Amino acid sequence: MESKLLKNIIISDIHGNVDSLIAFIKEIAKKEGTIDRLLIAGDIVGYGASPNECCDIVRYMKYGKRKVPIERIYKIIEQINPETSPDRDFMDAIQLMEKKCVVIGGNHDKQVVGEPSLTSEMNPVAQAAADWTKGVLTKENYTFLKRLSLRKKFKHEGFEIVHSTPSYPIGYEYAKNASVLKYTTLWSKITFGGHTHRPAAYIYTKEKRLVNASVLIPTDNYDMRLMVIEKECSDKTESFTVDQNNDWKYYVNVGSLGQPRDGNPDGCYVVFDSTLNQISFRRVRYNAEAASRRITEAKLPNELAQRVLKGV
């Protein structure tokens, strides 16, 4: 039987934001201690101006220096922030993550390799960014994105990662509130996803009224069709314990590392300690002004440059 890992870090929706990705890698090395595995729930590219840099860093963390020479990572740092190069903190941190990464694809990753969503079209701003990204991707990174699966299940550990919903991942349905999913469409005890860029967590039960509780959603954003108990859950929490003693299932949206949309521009990530059965939401501050400037310099839509500054 597969051994049970202790600490998983989950991120999603990097969206070509290399400044946030670098800050995140340094942050987890400094604050999270030993990390057994990094899980990425899709959308490495799209919107941001550094798709190749983000892909190269992710490929290094997945495959190691066999596929991405460490010299390539040095070069990225020199290009991104020459005044602080060499960034020893980052280089030490990323080498700790070598071959610890599991990554799946998101709708932006697949759009740029000619595999769009089967249920919806991108809006003009997103499509413009996808077209630009496709034009600058290296052959290696194009191939990498094309080969990404759409979900990954860790059967013995009772969880899986998917970009949107596990029952129809290629549809990229937005799980904007708890009513989108139900108990029967969640196939694992815990499902981690992204796509909406807004962190949230929901608990589902076998009862006819499927939604039992939620966390991290302000009361004014609750769907009025849901149970009263959910609307009464007014306190936002940053950590909760998974109940392994009943039949509940959990859907956890880890938010976005590279383009948050919950009003907070800091990048999001989640820590899942599978020994303590604890899930914790974290934020990491990064140089959003630099990320915005790169978008402007790349002549991508100005709306994208503003979003990273405001977290909307």
Can you characterise this structure?
Helices cover 31% and strands 18% of the residues. Strand 11 (267-273) and strand 12 form a beta hairpin. The longest helix is centred in the N-terminal third of the chain and has 14 residues, at 18-31. The chain starts with 6 loop residues before the first strand and ends with a helix. It has a domain at 7-164 and 254-310: Purple Acid Phosphatase, chain A, domain 2. The protein has 10 helices and 12 strands.
Summarize the structure.
The chain is built from ten helices and twelve strands. It is an alpha/beta fold and 312 residues long. α1 (18-31) links the parallel β1 (7-11) and β2.
Number of strands: 12
CATH topology group of the domain at 7-164 and 254-310: Purple Acid Phosphatase, chain A, domain 2
What does the largest sheet look like? Answer: 6 strands, mixed
Q: Largest beta sheet: what is the strand line-up?
A: 3-2-1-11-12-9
Low-confidence runs of at least 5 consecutive residues: 208-213, 224-229
Hey, roughly how much beta strand do the residues contain?
15-25%
Name of the top-level CATH class of the domain at 7-164 and 254-310: Alpha Beta
The termini sit apart by 43 Å
- SS element count, helices: 10
Please state the average pLDDT score. Answer: 88
Q: Which oligomeric form is depicted?
A: single chain
- Tell me the CATH architecture of the domain at 7-164 and 254-310: 4-Layer Sandwich
Computed over alpha carbons, the radius of gyration is 19 Å
- Could you say which structural class the secondary elements and strand pairing correspond to? alpha/beta
Query: What series of H and E elements makes up the topology?
Result: EHEHHHEHHHEEEEEHEEEEHH
How helical, in percent, are the residues?
25-40%
Shape descriptor reads globular
CATH superfamily of the domain at 7-164 and 254-310: Metallo-dependent phosphatases
